[in-house]
Amino acid sequence: MPARVRPEPPNPDARLMTMVNDRSDNLHSSTRLPVDAAVASEGGRRGRGLFDLDGTLVVGQTTFLLVSFLRRVGVVGLTFLMGTGLWFVGYKLGLVKVSERSREKGIGVFRGLDETEVEALMTRFTEEVLAPRFHPAATAALAEHLAEGDRVVVISAAPDPVVRAVSCRLGVEEYIGTPCEVVEGRYTGRLNGPSPHADEKIRVAAAYMERWEVDPSECWAYADHDTDLGLLRSVGHPVAKSIPSLHCAGLRKRQAGRYFPDLT
């Protein structure tokens, strides 16, 4: 398995950038998609792009889809699948919240598997389950960034092996997900650092922009959830996908005096 290269941190907050992985050589990139006029940039070149995964690049919750897939291929049992399903029902109803503990339970699906096995499973999962669920407008926007030679990063609280596989499928070299601990080549089912969610996602994005030496006003961010509002506000070109608190009539959304183009 190719070695993972981790770039030098851009500032004293080293823990953010030590979580950044480069693209694995043995995962393939996707065919470029045409640019969707609804999200085309006003000035042609887009600048840097920061993309969320669940609900933005992929329609649906990747963790639940992952558990369903792993149940189908015999990696996890029915009890784990049912428990995951009940948790997501509670989450949708506002009865439970995302926490590091719930993240760790989610990555428990990898416990005991070796890195090569997980990589193969995630490649298959991406091709069979996630690729058919890629959001056309979001992936078109990402493809335009890449075609323009822009730096692009996928920042997601989904498990790192999932984010890595999807990013490589889409031709994205920079990505970060919830870090999973690996000891002697096997996943332990434990976290290995903070999950890039809510405020942590904002800090990770800021670290990337500093590393790229770019003004945030020149960056684009694409996201779909209320917890991503801070990320959207932190850049010059926010693009929201169906964020409930921004909902209003028309093709544009307004919040706190700023307009958020709609990616739906």
In a nutshell, what does this entry contain?
This protein is α/β, with parallel strands linked by helices. Helices cover 36% and strands 16% of the residues.
Description:
The protein is α/β, with parallel strands linked by helices. The chain is 36% helix and 16% strand. It contains nine helices and nine strands. It has a five-stranded parallel sheet, with helices on both faces. Strands 4-5 form a two-stranded antiparallel sheet. Strand 6, helix 9 and strand 7 form a beta-alpha-beta unit. The longest helix is centred in the middle third of the chain and has 16 residues. The protein is globular.
Element layout with pairings:
Layout: H1 14-17, E1 49-51, H2 62-72, H3 78-92, H4 100-107, H5 115-130, H6 136-147, E2 152-159, H7 160-169, E3 174-178, E4 180-183, E5 186-191, H8 199-212, E6 220-223, H9 229-233, E7 237-240, E8 252-255, E9 258-261
Characteristics:
264 residues, alpha/beta, five-stranded parallel beta sheet, two-stranded antiparallel sheet, 9 helices, 9 strands, globular, disordered N terminus
Mean pLDDT: 76
Distance between the termini: 38 Å
pLDDT < 50 stretches:
1-46, 245-259
Assembly type: single chain
Radius of gyration: 18 Å
Series of secondary-structure elements, N-terminal to C-terminal = HEHHHHHEHEEEHEHEEE
Tally of DSSP helical segments: 9
Which percent range fits the helix content? 25-40%
Strand content: 15-25%
The spatial strand order of the largest sheet comes to 3-2-1-6-7
Largest sheet: 5 strands, parallel
Q: Report the principal-axis shape.
A: globular
Could you say which structural class the secondary elements and strand pairing correspond to? alpha/beta
Topology, number of strands? 9
